[in-house]
Amino acid sequence: MVIDADKCTGCQACVVACQSENNLALNEENRVIERRAKTWIRIERYWEGEWPNAKARFLPVLCQHCGNAPCETVCPVWATYHNPDGLNVQVYNRCIGTRFCANACPYSVRYFNFWEPEWPSPMDRQLNPDVTVRTKGIVEKCTFCIHRINRTKRQADRDGRPVADGEVEPACVQACPTTALVFGDLNDSDSKVSELSHSKRAYSLLDSLGTAPAITYLKKVDPSHVDEHEEHGH
User: Fold this and answer.
1) What's the chain's average pLDDT?
2) 8 Å CB contact between 86 and 110
């Protein structure tokens, strides 16, 4: 996945789409106060400058599906591993809730279920039948909407053709009104996501940790930005 920070407006459409698509429990007020709210994708907001010239910066953060994922090596029951598509996946019925993976994740994108999820009627009728409802006592996180990936692959197999570039869209990508999120096969050099990942604006979150994230971010473009070094003649 590639996330273009220059296009993100912080609208939270991706957050809402993810919550609905993946049957995430409701984040009621008391859950937020207890710091137990769950969002598989969150929008981090940063402020740059001082009033009246302060500027808001937004950064969507979700599981980075790291190639060298620290969450995988600490799990004592192999509940999280890399699948053949390069995704960091979670086996819910194998998880015993040690939370080692959540503590090892430097991006804080794994969430422990402290309670059984509940939805008031009639909201319990809108749950996605393609996604498992996770129970109390296990850890969950972003899957890149793996059910959509698998469904598209099965359809492509039936049609006797490869999966086309852009044919798979996780809910967050589909909901983004500014196309700030782009999903595809990084191993396909002709894919859009591969092309974007080689942009001069590309960078990875916490790259110095050596986790090899599968998500590439594109830097914000600010024409009014003044480089302090250039300003002082350095």
Assistant:
1) 93
2) no
Residue with tokens 């402290």: 114
Cα within 13 Å of Cα(110), Cβ side: 26
Angle, vertex CA 206, rays to CA 203 and CA 207, nearest 5: 55
Taken in order 42, 121, 175, 221, is the CA torsion positive or negative? Answer: negative
Among positive and negative, which fits the CA dihedral 133, 138, 74, 103? positive
First to last CA, the chain: 36
Contact 104, 76 (CB under 8 A): no
Confidence of residue 2 (pLDDT cuts 50, 70, 90): very high
For residue range 112-129, list pLDDT tens digits in order: 999 999 899 998 899 999
- Residue 72 structure tokens: 């995988």
Distance CA 104, CA 99 (A): 9
Find tokens 């940790």 and name the residue.
209
Check whether 216 has a pLDDT greater than 80: yes
Task: Take residue 41 and report the two structure tokens written for it.
Answer: 């994708």
